[in-house]
Amino acid sequence: MNPTWEKAISELKATLEERAEAISSTVQMLVERIPLEESLRPCERDLLRMHDAAVELFRMARERLSQNRFRRATDDPASRLQEVRHDLRGILNNLVGRSQLILEEPDLRPTDRAEVETICRHTKACTEALNAHREHHAEPPPDLQLHEGLLDGSVGLPEEITPGELGTSHPALPARILVADDSEASREVLGRFLSGRGHAVDYATNGNEAIIALTQGEFDLVLLDLVMPEKNGFEVLNWMRQSGQLSHTPVIIISGMDSDANAIRGIEMGAEDFLGRPIDLKLLRARVDACLERQRLREKEFAQYFTPDLARHLVRHPQELRTGRQIEVSVLFCDIVGFSRVSERLGPEATLKWLSQVLGVMSACVMDEEGVLVDYTGDQIMALWGAPKDQPDHASRACRSALAMLASLPALDAAWRSIIRDFTEVSIGISTGEAYVGNVGTERKFKYGALGNTVNLGSRVQGATKYVRAKALLTADTWQRLPAGSGIHGRRLGKTRVNNILEPVELYELAEPGQPGWDTLRERYERALACFESGGWQEAATCLTELLREHPGDGPSLILLSRAVEQMLQNDSTPKSFDPVWSLPGK
Hints:
By secondary structure, the chain is an alpha/beta fold. It is built from 20 helices and 14 strands. The strands form two sheets. Strands 6, 7, 8, 9, 10, 11, 12, 13 and 14 form a nine-stranded mixed sheet that branches.
């Protein structure tokens, strides 16, 4: 070993021994102040571990940096010293992390705070000594070769996992973070620091465990050590890139290896950031917050359409949006009644405020049932259930959303009646069936939605409300998918032929909860409807006349009565073939 190396190692050894001894003495003074009769607080347990770490730092500096050990080594001094420095940084990281956790204690005594700050200064001096040596001797980066199987472009999952077994879970806290580190002390410090800020923390002790965790769960962020058994950090990063995980799960590399070359390599492979040990927890917090904020901004883009949970899921599974599919869904169209009339009288500024509040309330009703807000077209909302995540009860969700919309109208009407000098009302149409669901926009402008006859029919059904004089209509396909005991009630209104839809559609009216006499109304109306459809127009008219004496404002009964009377008049003069399907006069 040349004299330059001998001098550098000797100086580094002396600095570390001196500082380690000072740290040990300072920690010992703090430990002696711990009352023996009381149970230990977390900060006091930290002090005991810091004392052990200081002793280990002194021992490692004395033994592993001895001149004789380096002279006997068969490998070159640069590689040997790099390995030692990595281990030394691990110990310093333990000291720095626990010191910073203690300094965050609100009831820390001023004298104890001063001593802990002294420890921080000593650990900082040790770090500077390690870094100064690295700068002067320009050592090569560690040779962390990728295992066979990752070099040829294959993903290289552990044997116990197959791609078909990949699962998902939903984070329960604002962020779910995976800490992949083989150091128990480092995992503990990072875990306490992150969980103390409201994050859920999972752990992996080696590269294979990290890959297993990533295949079985959804994470907002990964803190990844480089030097780990079984698979190192670069191999985990490479697997994340090849499997697609890296496109939506940011990674911050944390390592005690010399930072420059490894930071460049890691970031080129797709990592968001690189932090060298020992870690400043304040800096770590800033980097973590920055990564999570970028994730939140991506989720905010999706939150235009989806619930927060679904937005988070889709940020982590963007392929579910890129690939369209044919699937059964329920669509809902909600339109503000009399919008043009009110807006003409009200003026643009007040109209916008009214529109914004009404659509905001209607949108909340969709979100509460985990629906997708597909589009706002003027004063109309289009919503979707059944995709992108499967919802077997999509028809029930759409109907419950519609009922919530109707229930919200009295409060909105009371707030705006004196301002708009009109009623605040909506009309709703629901349709269920097969549709193509995915990006219905362009590559330049993404728009998630559905296309097909089911969607067109839903729009026409909403338009039919003004002809049948009902607030909310749904198709027979929707009605038939409502389970028994769902608490959703309605009545059959008969078959209609809507504009530009060839096949007639059976319509049902959705009953508002608590509507007095609904069961009797439904039974008598459907009896009259059956008479009408079978050609018994006189009997139907008689039933409907009696019904309207008790329910004079029932729109569907008035319409059916007028149709029955019309059929009687036409057939009295010139008998004609009868078609019970009602062709609506417009959209």
